[in-house]
Amino acid sequence: MLIVQKFGGTSVANLERVRAVGERVRKTAGDGHKVVVVLSAPAGETDQLLKLASEITNQPDPRECDSLVALGEQKSVALLGLYLKAQNVPCVSLSGWQVPVWTDSEHGKARIRHIEPERIFKELGSGKVVIVTGFQGITEEGDVATLGRGGSDTSAVALAAALKADLCEIYTDVDGVYTADPKVVSGPKLLQKISYEEMMELADAGAKVLQTRSVEVAAKHRVPLKVRSSFNDHPGTEVVSENESLEKILVAGVTLNKNEARISIRRIPEGQGVLAKFFGPLAEAGINVDMIVENLAADGTADLGFTVSKGDLRTAMKYAEMVAKKMGAGRVEAAGDIAKISIVGLGMRTHAGVAYRIFQILADLGVAVQMVTTSEIKVSLVVAMDDAEKAVRELHKAFGLEKNA
Amino acid sequence: MLIVQKFGGTSVANLERVRAVGERVRKTAGDGHKVVVVLSAPAGETDQLLKLASEITNQPDPRECDSLVALGEQKSVALLGLYLKAQNVPCVSLSGWQVPVWTDSEHGKARIRHIEPERIFKELGSGKVVIVTGFQGITEEGDVATLGRGGSDTSAVALAAALKADLCEIYTDVDGVYTADPKVVSGPKLLQKISYEEMMELADAGAKVLQTRSVEVAAKHRVPLKVRSSFNDHPGTEVVSENESLEKILVAGVTLNKNEARISIRRIPEGQGVLAKFFGPLAEAGINVDMIVENLAADGTADLGFTVSKGDLRTAMKYAEMVAKKMGAGRVEAAGDIAKISIVGLGMRTHAGVAYRIFQILADLGVAVQMVTTSEIKVSLVVAMDDAEKAVRELHKAFGLEKNA
Fold first, then answer.
1. Is residue B391 part of a domain?
2. Which among A26, B77, B135, B304 would be 20 to 30 A from B361, CA to CA?
3. pTM value?
4. Is B82 inside any structural domain?
5. For residue B243, what pLDDT is reported?
6. Domain range enclosing A150
7. What is the pLDDT at residue B148?
8. CA-CA distance, B11 to B16, in Å (whole number)?
């Protein structure tokens, strides 16, 4: 088999951990597999490099910043290369530009355009383990570009797709994908399988185990994906196509995101392009809007609510108030002490009344729902921060997700 | 003018120093010059990376080690790039592979084969300062290779040659080239000019201000070279062709090298290839031999003496004893408590009796000379460590090199 193994920052945080990764890779290669390893920067290293840049200027040039930040993964791959060579495991470490992994020129949040597989195939063909930097590639102009935070998952999946790998293993610091955050819920279930679609919604809703884009790429190219722990030999969670997802459970997981804040604008007068008028300035300011709800009242005025990350709240409020004033709308309110809960499951598509059950559970708990949005396989809710963990625990239990349920 | 400015590790040791380099570069560019900056790794960074490699294995794979060690200069150039961009100075930082600087495949001590100047000319043509990593390049195989310790000087000179620069300035932590080490001799003279040939011999004899190879390259391509301080605006020392070297002084400098040790073998029986038999095994073991003296006695036996770096003494002794035994030679002696003194000057070529004066001065001092070698413009001596500084001071004075002489 051709296997891509991706290890995150905590898995290469120090030399002891690098050795452990090396031993796992050696074992996989020893079992007769061809192995391509994708590494993140050692935990903390990227932040340290960013801090250095920010000490020089508070608006670092993106191209120069990328050259600096990319050094983290380059360090990881060289260290693993040194270790494996010292153990007489034939190997070669490659930076993104050496593969090459071609990206667009959006420094700091570049997207992979195309990966040339020839060099990797050549090295694999000569019996070597190939170690590749995650998170980075090279632009047409010959500059180093990074993919943005968490991009190493995407690098691994894109490499697996380009190499038509038989398996892409994402090694992390948890045993796999859980039905809820073990820090919030006691005894969540570890999922043996999950569909790409559910995984995407979970990742998007705040489950940190995989980056959303990496799941998108995996789904598009049908890359067989596995999320495993780098600390033990637990088989982990397989991310598979919907029709392979044998466990026909209603809900796959409940996530909690405490990093968002809510803004609502009351009584916006009737008119064309109300939403564009509010969200245009936010988009220009680079502020990501997550949930959006709008409701038209009988008198023709609309109520609008949306969430942004807590860090963007102040700026977002400034724009919202500006637009609201111009349009003669009513009050603009901000709430920072809220949390977003998402319930994700393929079963929602076929089973009516899941949303109703959710609302009933929360009502019984006395938890007020401040905002709701729904997609085909996800219901997201905003509740008061104080109610959030209690609500997650109760929903998790009610949908039978506990380990011993 | 097209000027190459090279800054060493202490000049980019921290952000404050990087800013100072940036200001100097900005001033040069502001004066209307085209500037190519060559940087070493921040002081200590290369050692730290090598230490990391040595913690993984005591025989690091050279190719992987080069990928790791090369990160130091890549950090320097990105940091300076960030600073200059923040000051609105158009610039671009380039790693060796981006230039590209082509080298051979001798990882850890690669030699530059060819530098493609097109990209640098293009960037300079668009009004940018170009910042290039010293010490590294890329092999035909597409691997990063380093030039070995001090290689950044060579990078700068080679770039200056390839770009046909009008001037190559080497910025360092001293004001220029002195007639002797200010730590040993009080008040040595700062040379305004020195010939390439003298500079080569001085560098070779232990003056740390420039790497020997960089002077060789400068001499070969007649690159106008200047050694200056990065801490002040002193004009420094110009390294020029012999016929431009106006100061017709007998001796340009006296150097002291305390890092060598001496081995001598007595009464080696007559025979073919004696020297090859001794130095073959040392070369294979990668041990550099510096001074070599051999003297044939009337009875046909030879006495052989040579110096190696102190760190290699134990290994070199092992080989020397092995060969001596095989050949039936006499005693093998090692001396670690010695120092090498070199006296360098173009004047020696035309003035007879310089060696005699040297020996006379040492005899008057009561300093015993253990070994002597001479070249066209250099006399090197081995003396006891305890005598060394005294001898340097006296020679320096006797040849009129004191500032106020």
1. no
2. B304
3. 0.80
4. yes
5. 67
6. 2-173
7. 76
8. 9
